[in-house]
Amino acid sequence: MDEEAPKHTAEVLDELSTPSHVQIRSSPELADNVSHAASAEDKKRVEDGRDRMRRRTGYRKVRGVARSLTNSPWQVIHAIGLGTALARQGAGRGLAEHWGSLRYSQALAANRGGYLQLSPEGRDLLRFYKAAQSGEIGTGFASLVAERIVRSRYPDHSVSVIPADIALKAGWTLRSTGNGPRPEPLQRRPHFFVEAWRPGHPSKILLVASKGTHGAASQVHKQLATATAHVESVHIGPHDTVPFLLVGTEIPAKESLAVHVLEAPAETVLGPSPGEPPADLNLHLEDRNELAEVHLARALNGERTAPGFQIRPESFTWFSTVLARAEAATLMAFTGGGKPTAQYLTNEQGKRHFRYDNQAGTGSVRDARHRIDGIDFVGTDHVFRLNGNRVEAFSGLAEDLYTHLHHGRVSDYRAGAHALRVQWPATHTAKGWGPVSIRPDGSVMAIRLLRP
After folding, report:
1. How far is 372 from 42, CA to CA, in rounded Å?
2. Is 38 among the domain residues?
3. Three-class DSSP category at 389
4. Within a domain: 156
5. Which of 129, 134, 271, 359 could form an SS bridge with 202, CB 3.0 to 4.6 Å?
6. Which whole number is the average pLDDT over 129-156?
7. Are 81 and 74 in contact, with CB atoms under 8 Å apart?
8. Domain membership flag for residue 361
9. Of 95 and 339, the one with more pLDDT
10. Which one has a higher pLDDT value, 116 or 363?
């Protein structure tokens, strides 16, 4: 087949629904290479007259990790869409940004060995969106790998992947105040909190720093070395104790993708203080003005505190509510944004961007209802052209779960989602549709060719 010729739309949709493999690489050698890259970076900083970076250490090979991750490209696009739903400000910025993940509809394809790599279209996209592509595709794979690892360790829990900046904004102002550059630890932050939860029990939490590169493995080592500074900026409980994952996605132009991952194992539980009631997930939150300061385990340059973000035990209940409501906001933004999303956000988290329901180019959001694999979903659809043919994309949430979140019932949503977590169909397509992705949180993303 001529690589320069556009693919038939049906062929594109078939490729999007075809499960493919991505290598997962984790080894003591990877940990050593990242440590050497961190030392080289710090040496260069000292030569330039700058301080060494504050970094987390103690990372190692991920125990029990699988050697590959099997997903369809459409599942990756679904993960990218969820990860960027709030960052793109949803309805406040229009349909073009609500559906930003669709730019990757032709970017990934399996090679003859069944491993994912950039397609010819993806390599063309790379030329124009190189930084965005590596970051967003890397984010998609990082969330899927982190979710898989945590789910395997806590099989009786549900697992949520929550954008870290959205959660942190509930307690801290992350924007610059205009009084000069902020300290580096306030600029470098992890990308996700991964929460393992079940109703009526305290959550378990870890950090994820995600990177992506079109370069070689040596560039991955440098990026993961920088990621050690990202996870050092946030501490939950005592300094230097919260577990974390470092995830780097290698996206070569003409070879299969690979995900490199390291961990610092531990367990941090967001339990309430003695005598304190459990977190009220339905509680509307206001912005808190927390001090951006970390109490260090050991003095650094004579100082016992340093810039950063620390959630102390007396704030664990509050932060549990923050995480649950940030997840609710993400799911509502994914279904279409608007007022149902705004109710879950503080002003600093972007509440004002979601106060109005109108999308650019349409006045209809969250008015699409589809039955997919016997399940009723509510969300937003969008008709556009893919290689000259009209297709319909749909993002939504299972109707019962959507109703809970629409009316502010986060506890009821979580109880329902947890009860259903192992009952969702493991499908890659469905009758009347092309590619379909249904996640344990009850969200769906589907696309189909519209016949003339």
Report:
1. 52
2. yes
3. strand
4. yes
5. 271
6. 91
7. no
8. no
9. 339
10. 116
3-state secondary structure 333-380: HHHCCCHHHHCCCCCCCCHHHHCCCCECCECCCCCEEEEECCEEEEEE
User: What are the structure tokens assigned to 370, written together?
Assistant: 């589809």
Which H helix or E strand runs over 32?
Answer: helix 28-47
Extract the tokens encoding 132.
């965005």
Exposed, middle or buried: residue 369 (CB in 10 Å: 0-12, 13-18, 19+)?
middle
Question: Residue 424 has which token pair?
Answer: 């969702």
What pLDDT sits at residue 363? Answer: 43
Tell me, what DSSP letter sits at residue 222?
H
Distances (CA, A) of 351 to 46, 331, 338, 358: 42, 15, 9, 15
Written as one string, the DSSP assignment of 234-293 is EEESSTT-S-EEEEEEE--SSSB-EEEEEEE---EE-PPPTTPPPP-TTPPP-------E
Average pLDDT of every residue of the chain: 90
Residue 316 has pLDDT above 80, yes or no: yes
Written as six digits, the tokens of 130 are: 């190189």
What's the count of helices (H) and strands (E) in the chain, helices before strands?
12, 20
Angle (nearest 5°) at CA 340 between 404 and 158: 45
Residue 293: CB partners within 8 Å, gap ≥ 6?
A: 305, 306, 307, 308, 310
- Judged against a pLDDT cut of 80, whether residue 69 lies above it is answered with yes
Q: With 0-12 CB in 10 A as exposed, 13-18 as middle and 19+ as buried, what is 57?
A: exposed
Q: What does the alpha-carbon distance between residue 394 and residue 306 come to, in Å, rounded to a whole number?
A: 46
Which residues are within 8 A (CB) of 49 and not within 5 positions of it... i.e. 6 or more apart?
A: none
**SS3 state of residue 7:** coil
Q: How many domains does the chain divide into?
A: 1
- Is residue 423 classed as helix, strand or coil in its secondary structure? coil
Q: Can you tell me the distance from the alpha carbon of 108 to that of 20, in angstroms, rounded to the nearest whole number?
A: 10
C-beta of residue 413 within 8 angstroms of C-beta of residue 328: yes
What per-residue confidence (pLDDT) applies to 295? Answer: 94
Q: What's the rounded mean pLDDT across residues 395-418?
A: 97
Residue 92 lies in a domain: yes
Which range of residues forms the domain containing residue 43?
A: 21-335
